[in-house]
Structure formats: C-alpha cells, structure tokens
C-alpha cells in the first residue's frame, strides 16, 4: 500500500481528476472536429469522383449513341446512293427501250405510208385506165 500525502486528500484528487477529464475533453474536441472535417472532405471528394464518373459514363453513352447514329446515317446514305444508281440504270434502259420503240414506230409509219401511197397510186392508176 502506498502512502498518500495530506495534499492528496479526496477533494484535491477529485479536482485533479476533473482537470484531467477537462483536459482530455478539450483535446478530444480539438482532434475530433479535424477528423470530422477530414471525413467530410473525403466524402465530398468521393462524391465529386462519383459525379465525375457519372458524367464520364453519360458522355461515353452519348458518344456511343452518336457513333451508332453516324453509322446508321452512313448506311442510309449508301442505300440511297445505291438506289439512285439502280434507278439511273433502269432509267437508261427504259430510255433505250423507248428509243427502240420510237424507231420501230417510225419504220412502221414509213412502211405504212409507203404501202398506202403505193396502193393509192395503184388504185388511182386502175381508175384512170
């Protein structure tokens, strides 16, 4: 058992313990707000990172949609060009066929004119005899 001085009476020990407790609480208050601030800053940083990642994902999705739309527009343009070329080819073929039919009609008209003129002359000669 240790000896205690008279100065170490119960009331003086209580005062010393209270002072130690107050000192401890003051130290805890000084430390904890810094920890809370650091935690708050860390959570803010994490939120900023999450927000940045969300925006990057959104931008990547927009970029992917843009590329998909550009690809589809390219396909539509290629189909339009191909259809236009096919229509031009078909138009050339129809124009050629039309020219052929006109040429034949002219031949028929010439032959029929020749035939009727010849027959008219024959008929007229027959009448005149």
Automatic annotation (TrEMBL):
* Keywords for this protein: Coiled coil
Q: Which residues form a coiled coil?
A: 52-111
* Record bears the keyword Coiled coil: yes
Top-level taxon in the UniProt lineage: Eukaryota
Protein's UniProt name: Uncharacterized protein
């Amino acid at each position: 058992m240790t000896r205690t001085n008279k100065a170490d009476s119960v009331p003086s020990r209580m005062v010393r313990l209270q002072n130690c407790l107050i000192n401890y609480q003051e130290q805890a208050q000084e430390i904890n707000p810094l920890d809370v601030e650091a935690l708050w800053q860390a959570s803010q940083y994490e939120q900023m990172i999450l927000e940045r990642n969300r925006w990057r994902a959104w931008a990547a999705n927009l970029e992917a949609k843009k590329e998909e739309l550009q690809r589809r527009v390219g396909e539509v343009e290629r189909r339009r060009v191909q259809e236009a070329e096919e229509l031009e080819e078909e138009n050339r073929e129809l124009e050629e066929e039309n020219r052929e039919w006109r040429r034949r009609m002219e031949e028929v008209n010439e032959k029929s004119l020749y035939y009727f003129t010849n027959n008219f002359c024959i008929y007229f000669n027959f009448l005149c005899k």
